[in-house]
Specification:
The protein is an alpha+beta fold and 72 residues long. The protein has one domain. The strands form two sheets. Strands 1-4 form a two-stranded antiparallel ribbon. A two-stranded antiparallel ribbon has the order 2-3.
């Protein structure tokens, strides 16, 4: 396990705080970092985009987080 378990309530509260700062009908899109190649057969260690981790706790490449608080 890469991290000790983090209570999901932390990420819920982080998203609520972020959503309060959005303008009405605004949408926010966050893309995960990619795995960066170092050579033809190697790659660097994956490091997640800190914004997507702060808001979701997801630590996986090729992830997208879309926040649209006013969606119906």
């Amino acid at each position: 396990m890469k991290y000790n378990p983090i209570n999901s309530q932390l990420f819920i509260e982080n998203r609520k705080r972020f959503a309060k700062k959005l303008k009405p009908n605004a949408i926010a899109v966050f893309n995960a970092n990619d795995i960066m190649p170092t050579s033809a057969d190697g790659s660097m260690m994956f490091i997640q985009n800190t914004d997507i981790f702060y808001l979701s706790g997801i630590d996986q490449e090729e992830s997208i987080l879309v926040l649209f608080p006013d969606a119906k």
